[in-house]
Structures are given as C-alpha cells and as structure tokens.
Amino acid sequence: MAVLRLDLPTLRSGHNRADEVVPPDALDLPKGDWPVPLDVELDADRLGDQVTVAVRVRTESQEECARCLKEFRAPLDFGLTLYADRAGTGGRHEKELAESDDVVFHDGRHIDLAEPVREATLLARPFAPLCRPECQGLCPRCGADRNEGPCPHAAEARA
After folding, report:
1. Residue 62 near residue 35 (C-beta atoms within 8 A)
2. pTM: predicted TM-score of the whole model, two decimal places
C-alpha cells in the first residue's frame, strides 16, 4: 500500500476521514532529522471528481538551538489544505492551476498526497530553532553556555 494515497474508488461522496502513522523514510525524510513518525489526519470532502483534503500533521524534528547549539526535539503541529481535481478537466486554466501549491490533479483512481505533505513538513521546521524562548546562548568571548551560569565576561556584556 502506498503512503498517503487516497484511493478514489473507496472514497465515498461527502466527508471521509483517515488517520495514518507515516515513517519519515517513507517520505524521504532523513531519520536523524525526524526521530518519530508523522501522525497524519486526513479529512477529505468529495464531490464527484473534485476532492478537498484537509491535512493535519503532528511530529517532532531534531534541531540544534540557534543560541546555545544544544540538540533538542522541536514539536511540530501544522496543517495544509489541498484541492484535487481530475486531470484534463481544468480547461485552459489547468496549466496555471498545476503551478499552485494548493492544487493537485489525479487520474480518477487515486490522489497521491506524499509529496505535498513532505514539502509542508520540511517547511514547518523552525528557521532559527530555540531550545526554549529564554535561552541565553553562548558567550561570544569564551563560548561558555550562559544558561548554566554567568561566565567571567557577563559583567562586560552588561556594560
């Protein structure tokens, strides 16, 4: 069975819900950066060939604090909404729609959500991760971790 793939013949008209636990390597995410599986909730509303899919992902990423350089796990909880339609039904605007990050096309048999979820997962990582908001970081002179107590240069930094 393919990961994060909605089989349209089994998807009934109206609201559908599915939950999946996805290993990071199934989405080509490095195991070292993604230490736990992704909990993925899918809510799909189908009307004929058109399907709106709301995706909610909960996981953790392995990060290095931007201030003190300590390793920590950052919890991630994010969502995305995708609109799917059958390929060939978008008329003259289909090419423009295909360039949108929110629109995917299907062949009438299944909708593959793996790539959009993978991209959203990578984009959900913090740009400058902090082990905690009040992290004081390292002393620029001696490299001491200011979270563990003052260094000899702490008085100079206040002056």
Report:
1. yes
2. 0.82
Give the H/E segment covering residue 77: strand 71-86
Residue-wise pLDDT tens digits, 51-82: 999 999 999 999 999 999 999 999 999 999 99
What is the rounded CA–CA span in Å between residue 157 and residue 104?
A: 53
Domain count along the chain = 1
37 touches 22 (CB < 8 A): yes
Tell me the sheet residues that pair with 55: 42, 80
Number of other CB atoms surrounding residue 64 within 10 Å: 11
Q: Pick from 111, 115, 113: which is nearest to 49 by CA?
A: 111
Q: Which domain holds residue 69?
A: 5-158
Closest CA to 124 of 19, 3, 45, 38: 38
The rounded distance, in Å, linking the Cα atoms of 152 and 158 is 12
Q: Give me 93's structure tokens.
A: 């605007």
Question: How far is Cα 84 from Cα 13, in angstroms, rounded to an integer?
Answer: 14
Helix (H) or strand (E) holding 114: helix 114-124
